[in-house]
Amino acid sequence: MTQTALADQAGIPRNTLNRKINVGIFNFDELRRIAYAVQRPLSSIVAAAERLDSAEYDDVR
Fold first, then answer.
1. Which of 4, 5, 6 is nearest to 45 (CA)?
2. Distance between CA atoms of 43 and 45, rounded to whole angstroms?
3. Which of 27, 38, 51, 60 gives the lowest tally of CB atoms within 10 Å of its CB?
4. How is the chain split into domains, by residue range?
């Protein structure tokens, strides 16, 4: 799915979605709408983000 399609389906402006992807900070409502748009449980998105964060932390140590 493209960022444009995701932004449209989640109801988030594309430039806002792009900025938040680059910065990595989303609020709960945005995450909930993204999960609905990609038809995944919100918990799976949070778990994936935690795995990525943990991997980045391990790379820094």
1. 6
2. 5
3. 60
4. 3-60
Cα–Cα distance measured from residue 23 to residue 46, given in angstroms and rounded to the nearest whole number: 16
Cα–Cα distance measured from residue 26 to residue 20, given in angstroms and rounded to the nearest whole number: 6
Contact 17, 6 (CB under 8 A): yes
Helix spans in the chain (H): 3-10, 14-23, 28-37, 42-60
DSSP-based three-state secondary structure for 41: coil
Cβ neighbours of residue 32 closer than 8 Å, sequence gap 6 or more: 42
Q: What is the pLDDT of residues 13-55, one digit of tens each?
A: 999 999 999 998 999 999 999 999 999 999 999 999 899 889 8
